[in-house]
């Protein structure tokens, strides 16, 4: 069995049992899904629940006289006094009054006893709309008045056609992907960093380097924790699919939502590259610093760079193809997040996407090469951080950093 | 018993900036022997070990392990107990041992069987499933030793293997080392415990300021420093014995009297003279072969006064 595989297996199994990982990967998504489920159910219920509250109306305008058949819970009253009495004695939950000049002013007054649900208000609106439409005597016109917009969006640069229901999915998917990837990449690569710091600080590193090469160790750690990250992403995706599936079947705001396949593929490719880049950097930081506190401080700088696009989110809204979003798409440390984020607002030109991909791949390879060397050079330096000059010198020569008998850097 | 050279070090040197940690060191370690590496703190012992293990590269000179420069495959045949002990603290003892043995190329099943047998021998069987952090310092030290020999290496390099161990555990580790040697393994042992070297080491190298000062079989090194003298313990006037040139108290606070002999006089002659002298009572008689500790102090002090 290759040694990198042993390291990968150990990292995978060891971290899989961590309570923090189990919570972040399984408990948190389910809690979130539960919260979303409750919220969506409540919203759906509010807008679509069957209204049984008795509602009266007084029509002084005559618009409702011989129009559309009224709902079962609606009752007509001849004047406001009678309706008011019914409201007072609890026969009615609410009543609305159409003034005699309603057709010219549109004035409708609603009297109610306590709160009235949005669904009941919709019902009143629909009843008025249907009656108004019927009063025109034109069936097609009536239909248009009741459902005035059936918009199809065609993005010129991609030819992608979006149905109105799909727009939510198009906006939602990249945001969800970005958050999931951000959580996954930062948690797995921080496991990697603390693993290296632990092995260095408890001095087991000295035994490890006489058993495997630093490159085998680095590769095993990155692959093992990457597999762990994929599990985390997998759990989120399955849950996301379940939530959307549930939402699509309902009549709530997720109805008709589909996840665009090209966004998913692009997101996954950039996620994997982003993971390799971040994990490699974190391993390098862990090896150089050798202390949890210090490595977290330096890792924070990289996390800040990754989060920079959020500060410019206004640019993505107003001008998603402007210079700032384009620059951040090509800049390798922000490109994974920006590519996903930008796809919410626009379709990134294929050439730009390919350029971002190539730049990110090249950067990842170069960073891995440097990190593998830094990793190798710094593993046995305890208590003292190598100077930048020392690192550059060692990188050029490709030999190990000198350590004295006590492990201090020379 | 195996024969042959396990380690062949030729003229190695290593500097850290201006500081010369190892300076033109040459020695061999043979299969089936315990080879002691000794010297004061900062003499260059750990640097030498790290160069043998390819953790550090020598500035010049050559090192062959099992007849060739150290390869990744050859590393599987080496067990290393570093001066700075290190174990995974939050995993069960046996799991950690199996993992580290697998990294040395041993199959998981074999590693588990042998790990349990070793823990049994080290009287740690009941702690196999405990986390390392739950063990006492002495127990961790024994586990660390078990990790060093678990994968059945041909060569073990151990730095202060007895530190932190009580006499009972010291004996257990000593027996394991002698066993290992008997089966043809080579042991490089860096230690300050001179009595242990006298007890179990076959040959030694003493390093001082990066250079080899004493090298060879332990007995012959001691003989080199032997005086023409005997140590006696008992009652009577030792000065009246024929052939005794001078009388001193035994060195370094030990009991007895040191009799310096005149040139040409042998210890046998003195013993015979004591036997024929009724005024003398003899309880102990031994050759004044210096302890390694004395030789160590003598060399270091001598170097200091020459500097």
Please describe the structure with a list of short key phrases separated by commas or semicolons.
heterodimer; A: 410 residues; mainly alpha; D-Maltodextrin-Binding Protein, domain 2; four-stranded mixed sheet; two-stranded antiparallel sheet; 16 helices; B: 307 residues; alpha/beta; Rossmann fold; Alpha-Beta Plaits; 3 domains; six-stranded mixed sheet; 10 helices; 34% helix; 28% strand; globular
Topology:
The complex is a heterodimer of chains A (410) and B (307).
Chain A: H1 3-16, H2 19-48, E1 55-59, E2 74-77, H3 80-88, E3 94-98, H4 102-105, E4 108-112, H5 118-136, H6 139-146, E5 153-154, E6 161-162, H7 166-201, H8 205-208, H9 214-249, H10 261-289, H11 292-311, H12 313-318, H13 323-330, H14 335-342, H15 350-378, H16 388-397
Parallel strand pairs in A: 1-2, 1-3
Antiparallel strand pairs in A: 3-4, 5-6
Helix pairs in contact in A: 1-9, 2-9, 5-6, 7-9, 7-10, 7-11, 7-14, 10-11, 10-14, 10-15, 13-14
Chain B: E1 5-16, E2 19-30, E3 34-38, H1 45-52, E4 60-65, H2 72-75, E5 78-81, H3 93-103, H4 108-121, H5 137-149, E6 155-159, H6 167-182, E7 186-190, H7 194-200, E8 203-208, E9 211-217, H8 218-224, E10 229-235, E11 244-249, E12 257-261, H9 267-276, E13 281-287, H10 292-306
Parallel strand pairs in B: 3-7, 3-8, 5-6, 6-7
Antiparallel strand pairs in B: 1-2, 1-4, 8-9, 10-12, 10-13, 11-12
Helix pairs in contact in B: 3-4
